[in-house]
Design a protein that fits this description.
Elements (H helix, E strand, L loop, with lengths): L9 H4 L19 E3 L21 E2 L54 H5 L10 E3 L25 E4 L5 E2 L5 E9 L3 E18 L5 E15 L18 E2 L6 E3 L11 E7 L3 H7 L17 E2 L1 H8 L14 E3 L5 E4 L4 E4 L2 H6 L7 E2 L2 H4 L3 E2 L11 E5 L6 E4 L5 E6 L2 H6 L7 E4 L4 H6 L1 E7 L6 E4 L5 E5 L2 E4 L3 H6 L7 E4 L4 H5 L8 H4 L63 E7 L8 E7 L25 E7 L5 E8 L23 E6 L2 E2 L3 E4 L7 E7 L2
Parallel strand pairs: 2-8, 13-16, 15-17, 18-21, 20-22, 23-26
Antiparallel strand pairs: 1-3, 4-11, 5-10, 6-7, 6-9, 7-8, 8-10, 8-11, 11-12, 13-14, 14-15, 18-19, 19-20, 23-24, 24-25, 27-29, 27-31, 28-30, 30-34, 31-32, 33-34
Length: 695
Amino acid sequence: MYSSRKTVDASSKSRTGRYPTMHHVPFASFLPHVRLKAASVLAAMHTGKDGTAFRTVRHGGPLGRRRAYVGQRKRYAMNGRSFMYRLAFAAGILITSMLSACEDEAEDAPATAAQDQFLEPVTCAVDAARYPTVPSDLDDIYVGRSFYADGNHLGHDIAYDEGTAIHPIACGTVRVYRPATGYGRLAVVIEHRLASPASFVNGRGEIVTISSFLTIYGHLRSTSDRNGTIGSLDIRDGDTVNPDDVIGYVDDDSHNGDGAEHLHFGVRLQGAKEAKAVDTSWFRGYDGSPSQRKWFADPVGFMATLTSSAVPTRWHPGGTVVVGEDGMPWMVDTDAVRHRIPANVFAQELLHECAIDVFDAELACLEPGEPFVSPRADSRVMKFDDASTVYEYADYGDGGWRRAFITYDAFRSWGWTDADIAIWPSVQRDTFVSGTDDWGFRFMRDGSLVKSDASNEVSVVSDGRRLPIFDWSTFLALGYREERIVVIPDDVIELVAGPRGPLITSDLIQVCMHPSSCIDDCPPSTPGGGGVGGGDGGSGGGEPVPDGGFGGQSGQGGSEPVVDPVPDVPLGKVRFRYDGPVVPGLNQLQGMWDPPGPSFYGWTPSTFALCPDLVAGDGLLECLLDMPSGTVNVLFTVHLADGRWWGDMSYDTTGGQGSTIGTVTLTGPSGDIPYVLVSNGTGFLYMNGLVSVVP
């Protein structure tokens, strides 16, 4: 049971141990535009191989409450939130020629402090994000120049035809619109401001929380024709641009500053002023000394995170606190009914800390009910001066009751603070016990986010059970925030947060339980019930509620929702398939990855046994690997029977030195898993495959 501490830092208590490594990073939409429901996008939460979380760098305060929303066919207005960022030039510095002229990108005169004083603020609110053209174009990598492919490239180069129109990825303010060394006739830098801080993975694999970011576009021109006579764009520094605007056209190889026609697309995780303060070549294309890698992000992963949460949310588990567009707070119960929370209760119980902002469309799928009556109404908390147990009690001396908090996290989840605890003299113990009925323990409050310190699975407490969240995209779509996750020792998590219940999937959260009130983009509802069963808000001390399922997913009340898996790929598995040249002998998988839990697969010959080549000389290597959702840093290659390596692009038979030897396909239960090529440490042309997080 909970032992009180007068000076406990509750926030640090709730964030110890490993953070979850659940994140879904495929492209969210095949449409060029994606609408953001809000700006508080979370990135994957990686853990190191020693089981500890990477250091989180926070810029600008706690995470906001809104979340990204990607419209599939319809664009949604955002509720006043936005994105920002900027970049600058540094002159007189020529980068020594490395592998190509592109390595000279981003050198010009640094801005002075006086110039910074006159930078116009970013005023637009970002309500839409898009790719520079369409998402699939990011797969057409120019001569293998993905992020850090050669050990220092700070962007993602995309091959395009000359004259292709390029769009900004989001609303922002132009900070650079001019020629630049290495970028040719036109480099464009745009600053975007986030409405609330959000988390992304930087170039060193760390989670960083930012308020602004810069996007960099190189090797362009301002006219649609090569000679500059047609369609000149009238864009200047300080202008506001939107995703529908064209900011430039891919320039020809004679004028673009670097090789054949392509776009250099970069993302810097700072605003312009911050970037200039630490880097004279602040919109550089290549790393230098000291390294600037931590300030940049892989544009592929960044865009996937920015445009994540591609499902319209219509359902929330019981215990969720939601706030409508009009600012009114509601408590959701297990029957998808919402109860208005009085303002004094909302403030007193600190419910704003876990509240989720929602739009009218999803609020309308929650049936209005009676005003919310808190389970802790009229109660107080106390402890005796000779013991550590903290009690919540009410009606002392006349039919009163008491509950003992099972842990400090449970105490905090109910909105209490140490300052609320009254200290009673021990001589009053007998009177207190005789004057109150023992109602058992107070467990974690419904709506609490929890995970075991021995697992990466994140669950939400609802009706006294832990409901696992299928993947990180579902986590984001529900509006949850990483900072709210409480890590609980594995040996007591069932006691503290309840037994493991049915899975929350992306399919489930799209179900409108009350379709008669759904007002916008309503998916088909299903018969059969609308919740996880009744309960008292997770505060009872009796037997666990039997797992009756969510109901409504198959028309059978009590059936558990399931993910529609890819045939032959079970949950927790990834199919690895290599298709390459037919050579005598056996092909071998080599790889390393960090699965959920304490184990770790190292880059050793032992990985051969995980994926045996059953038929020698057929050019194929296929197997199912134990690689559950949340596995991070999956690095792999294939050692061919003739001694070559799949990722060694120096063998490219087309002469372009940009293709692997054969192809690798990774498939999970939900579909193909994207990966990027990264240097194996010896520079460009010698590559491995990398999956940052298995969805």
